[in-house]
Specification:
- It contains twelve helices and twelve strands.
- It is α/β, with parallel strands linked by helices.
- β1, α1 and β2 form a beta-alpha-beta unit.
- The chain is globular, with a radius of gyration of 20 Å.
Length: 360
């Protein structure tokens, strides 16, 4: 790789700032070792951008992201701007939603792998979580979060609100295509999650997935209702390989899946579109209750760098180096506060980052 790759760095708010700083250290170290020319372009989004500019994301920030090879994102959310009942002109979450839409990042990929060293860290029994290695493919730009009408109003009967869930066959087909292609590189099992017994959008979803399955006869396809899947994800998670689902269901289910690995702080994610441009972020939020204390788990952000290298920079060797370093640190018994069992000393964010750097 000879051309310098521009990476926009958007730490956001709360612990997003802390874990992104850790991820950048690892990215720079691996880029030097593997001779990957990168240029980091810092910018502000979320509550930080509202404080500075009055908006959650500026148009010039969006343009920088469009020109970049990848985006490294922290987390957005600030108590000053997050009151759901306040009539705020801007909210931090508009930054990430706006980027997904502006960059057509329609597929959110969230790998969930239980590291052997963390089998005892899950709230589930070791025999349940041993061997878990799945990935959730979540549709990211449709459904309840984006469809219209969406508004709050007052009628003759009092206050009311409406959200709309809409999906087109084309939207479902492109996310299903991503999931089927991914399944072909793994164990060739695909579970599509919907609510087809109630929702028309889910009935369309299931029909489209079944039509897509004809193109991939090597992939074994199953369908599950979202409530049944939520239970199965806890009872027998090791049976699943690739899961594809719509926006709201994917949002909820991936947070549930984080408990398989012991902590929300462990999971990376990638938001991808039709090309190689991707947005990479840990799935946790800004966690204002621990922000500034230096105790956040940086592993989700660091593993997001591995995904960035793999899927946007085509640097598989560098990605694997990071993942092996994280596993080695965990195998050596190193834990942050969210993972530490009683009697085990917890490392702060900086110390865990340094431990991973030493094992690169």
């Amino acid at each position: 790789m000879s051309r310098t790759q521009q990476i926009v760095v958007l730490p956001g708010d709360g612990i997003g700032v802390e874990v992104t700083a850790a991820a950048v250290q690892v990215l720079e170290a691996v880029a030097r070792t593997h001779q990957i020319p990168i240029e980091l372009i810092p910018d502000v989004v979320g509550g930080a951008a509202i404080d500075a500019y009055g908006v959650a994301i500026r148009p010039e920030t969006v343009q920088r992201c469009k020109r970049a090879a990848a985006i490294l994102f922290g987390a957005v959310g600030d108590p000053r701007w997050d009151d759901a009942n306040a009539l705020a002109k801007a909210r931090p979450g508009e930054a990430i939603l706006g980027l997904r839409k502006a960059l057509s990042l329609y597929a959110n990929l969230r790998p969930v792998r239980v590291d052997p060293a963390l089998v005892d860290s899950s709230t589930l029994r070791p025999e349940v979580v041993t061997g878990v290695d799945l990935i959730v493919v979540r549709e990211l730009t449709g459904g309840l979060y984006f469809s219209r009408p969406k508004r709050r109003y007052t009628s003759a009967r009092g206050e009311a609100a409406v959200d709309t869930m809409r999906y087109s066959a084309a939207e479902i087909e492109r996310i299903a295509e991503r999931a089927f292609a991914l399944a072909m590189t793994r164990r060739r099992k695909l579970c599509s999650v919907d609510k087809a017994n109630v929702l028309e959008t889910s009935r369309l979803w299931r029909d489209v997935v079944n039509r897509m399955a004809l193109r991939y006869p090597q992939v074994r396809v199953t369908h599950m209702l979202v409530d049944a899947f939520a239970m199965a994800l806890i009872r027998r998670p090791a049976e699943f390989d690739v899961i594809v689902t719509e926006n709201l269901f994917g949002d909820v289910l991936t947070d549930e899946a984080s408990m398989l690995v012991g902590s929300l702080g462990m999971l990376p994610s990638a938001s991808l579109g039709a090309g190689t441009l991707g947005l990479y972020e840990p799935i946790h939020g800004s966690a204002p209750d621990i922000a500034g204390r230096g105790i956040a788990n940086p592993i989700g952000a660091i593993l997001s760098v591995a995904l960035l290298l793999r899927w946007s920079l085509d640097a598989e060797a560098a990605a694997g180096t990071i993942e092996r370093a994280v596993s080695k640190a965990l195998a050596d018994g190193l834990r942050t506060a969210d993972l530490a069992r009683p009697g085990i000393q917890a490392l702060n964010t900086s110390a865990m980052t340094q431990a991973i750097l030493e094992r690169l």
